């Protein structure tokens, strides 16, 4: 494969944003800052570790690695602007397949007018994609994990565990029903980061947000730890899809908590702001569910609790293990 | 290896810059922009492709991958501010060795007050480091390859081919002399990007710059192509070190043109600005040599020429091959 012809083939024909002074074609990209702060994150996905050809087509691989990154920006309440892709290419991947990987990224990027402004192309033994994303957020409106306060309510977007269900089917071919399988597979392969929802809440003064990359058990524990608060979740109202329940009746309850990569958002807001969150969610077509609340710590260490039968039990970050012990 | 304890061990104790609103510890980093434009680049180095344990200690690996990135920023005339590191870790690397890789990066970063603000840690079969750097540059002062104009003079910093010489010794153990070997090895393992030199020239209106990652033959052709100009180089004045000449008398002339990874800067400036370039170089302790000039294209395609015996011969991007044919 000719590296230069490959780079030419993935190079954008134009940039959507006027703030791109220099994109791909020099030693680095040059950007004119907009108002506000800028937000940046990087994520790597490796073939055989984060995805396989058996469960993902090249287009899905591209979509998903960018989705994971844009989801990080959404979890900061920021609007994505730019991305850069560093790719490690093994000999067994053809130039045409790799172009489809980039098309998968571009398809998602185009939905949000995000420009590809740089990258690197190297050879190696395993396909690996490292995506750097850059976004912008109004000054002091970034949504930190540490922003939860006692009295806040806890909410989550969408339904949970779907991606885990889709992956299960792709790996094992085993399912209790085929009704809704396509939906689960799509949720795994081409997840939709909650960008518009998060950036539409810029009017709110304070909000904690985390994206659900490792399951809400893990994400809730991160918010609790960063805010030094306890989070209490009502497991009866945690949202799941009918499709997941039908296809995996023995697993869906565990996967709601431990299933990763749904790229939904878990957040806390003051009670008085809930109406705005609900209205915004409706206007952008995203489901949002109130699933609990924030309290001062009961002990010296911040914890996440499941409210059960009038009592509570601790939900640890792994979630899955814990719930399994509870007699799944 | 415990990923979380490793991340804690490499996490900065503090940030040197007040513009870091949020570093490592959330979904993304948040930065308050300074005046001017921002500049960003990404580079990946893979074990077995870009370095080996035989030629590099862990500390050198870290230093060098960050140096390559900071050199890209220098080549834009920008001041580095932040970096993020995505690392793919195979089982054969110990946590302690990896910490030394990060120390190598930190040692270089600290010289320029550059903050580590984010990253990712994943497992895989080959050690791979992807570094994203972000810098700032005064508005409209980024140094593009396309900025060369007819009448400009062409200059280069430092000496060329040293890194190639150091690598040769590390790979083969063969050399004509041991006098200066340490210097060549150090130039290969811990190259010094020309950051201060480039950013100190901010007063100049126009300058083309490229960093010498692939040899000046390649870099000169890139400037020629982007500017649609011809570049003429006087091979008699291209700078090399006495150490390289002594250790590799049969190779140094080729390596001056084709040897990569010296991370020097190749640039063009209007004749009237040369005195400022020379003075700046002296004040920051960097050698600078005028090696040629810029002309309008002689044909339809931009070319680089070596002035020889009153005539010219074309220098292609690979440099090495061409000069070899010339009877090295």
Automatic annotation (TrEMBL), chains A, B:
<keyword id="KW-0808">Transferase</keyword>
<keyword id="KW-0784">Thiamine biosynthesis</keyword>
<keyword id="KW-0547">Nucleotide-binding</keyword>
<feature type="binding site">
    <location>
        <position position="72"/>
    </location>
    <ligand>
        <name>Mg(2+) 3</name>
    </ligand>
</feature>
<feature type="binding site">
    <location>
        <position position="43"/>
    </location>
    <ligand>
        <name>Mg(2+) 2</name>
    </ligand>
</feature>
<comment type="function">
    <text>Catalyzes the ATP-dependent phosphorylation of thiamine-monophosphate (TMP) to form thiamine-pyrophosphate (TPP), the active form of vitamin B1.</text>
</comment>
<dbReference type="InterPro" id="IPR006283">
    <property type="entry name" value="ThiL-like"/>
</dbReference>
<keyword id="KW-0067">ATP-binding</keyword>
<dbReference type="Pfam" id="PF02769">
    <property type="entry name" value="AIRS_C"/>
</dbReference>
<feature type="binding site">
    <location>
        <position position="213"/>
    </location>
    <ligand>
        <name>ATP</name>
    </ligand>
</feature>
<dbReference type="InterPro" id="IPR036676">
    <property type="entry name" value="PurM-like_C_sf"/>
</dbReference>
<dbReference type="GO" id="GO:0009030">
    <property type="term" value="F:thiamine-phosphate kinase activity"/>
</dbReference>
<protein>
    <recommendedName>
        <fullName>Thiamine-monophosphate kinase</fullName>
        <ecNumber>2.7.4.16</ecNumber>
    </recommendedName>
</protein>
<keyword id="KW-0479">Metal-binding</keyword>
<feature type="binding site">
    <location>
        <position position="27"/>
    </location>
    <ligand>
        <name>Mg(2+) 3</name>
    </ligand>
</feature>
<feature type="binding site">
    <location>
        <position position="102"/>
    </location>
    <ligand>
        <name>ATP</name>
    </ligand>
</feature>
<dbReference type="InterPro" id="IPR010918">
    <property type="entry name" value="PurM-like_C_dom"/>
</dbReference>
<dbReference type="InterPro" id="IPR036921">
    <property type="entry name" value="PurM-like_N_sf"/>
</dbReference>
<feature type="binding site">
    <location>
        <position position="145"/>
    </location>
    <ligand>
        <name>ATP</name>
    </ligand>
</feature>
<feature type="binding site">
    <location>
        <position position="72"/>
    </location>
    <ligand>
        <name>Mg(2+) 2</name>
    </ligand>
</feature>
<feature type="binding site">
    <location>
        <position position="261"/>
    </location>
    <ligand>
        <name>substrate</name>
    </ligand>
</feature>
<dbReference type="Pfam" id="PF00586">
    <property type="entry name" value="AIRS"/>
</dbReference>
<feature type="binding site">
    <location>
        <position position="120"/>
    </location>
    <ligand>
        <name>Mg(2+) 1</name>
    </ligand>
</feature>
<feature type="domain" description="PurM-like C-terminal">
    <location>
        <begin position="149"/>
        <end position="296"/>
    </location>
</feature>
<keyword id="KW-0418">Kinase</keyword>
<feature type="binding site">
    <location>
        <begin position="119"/>
        <end position="120"/>
    </location>
    <ligand>
        <name>ATP</name>
    </ligand>
</feature>
<comment type="similarity">
    <text>Belongs to the thiamine-monophosphate kinase family.</text>
</comment>
<feature type="binding site">
    <location>
        <position position="72"/>
    </location>
    <ligand>
        <name>Mg(2+) 4</name>
    </ligand>
</feature>
<comment type="pathway">
    <text>Cofactor biosynthesis; thiamine diphosphate biosynthesis; thiamine diphosphate from thiamine phosphate: step 1/1.</text>
</comment>
<feature type="binding site">
    <location>
        <position position="211"/>
    </location>
    <ligand>
        <name>Mg(2+) 3</name>
    </ligand>
</feature>
<dbReference type="InterPro" id="IPR016188">
    <property type="entry name" value="PurM-like_N"/>
</dbReference>
<feature type="binding site">
    <location>
        <position position="320"/>
    </location>
    <ligand>
        <name>substrate</name>
    </ligand>
</feature>
<feature type="binding site">
    <location>
        <position position="214"/>
    </location>
    <ligand>
        <name>Mg(2+) 5</name>
    </ligand>
</feature>
<feature type="binding site">
    <location>
        <position position="50"/>
    </location>
    <ligand>
        <name>substrate</name>
    </ligand>
</feature>
<feature type="domain" description="PurM-like N-terminal">
    <location>
        <begin position="26"/>
        <end position="137"/>
    </location>
</feature>
<keyword id="KW-0460">Magnesium</keyword>
<feature type="binding site">
    <location>
        <position position="27"/>
    </location>
    <ligand>
        <name>Mg(2+) 4</name>
    </ligand>
</feature>
<feature type="binding site">
    <location>
        <position position="43"/>
    </location>
    <ligand>
        <name>Mg(2+) 1</name>
    </ligand>
</feature>
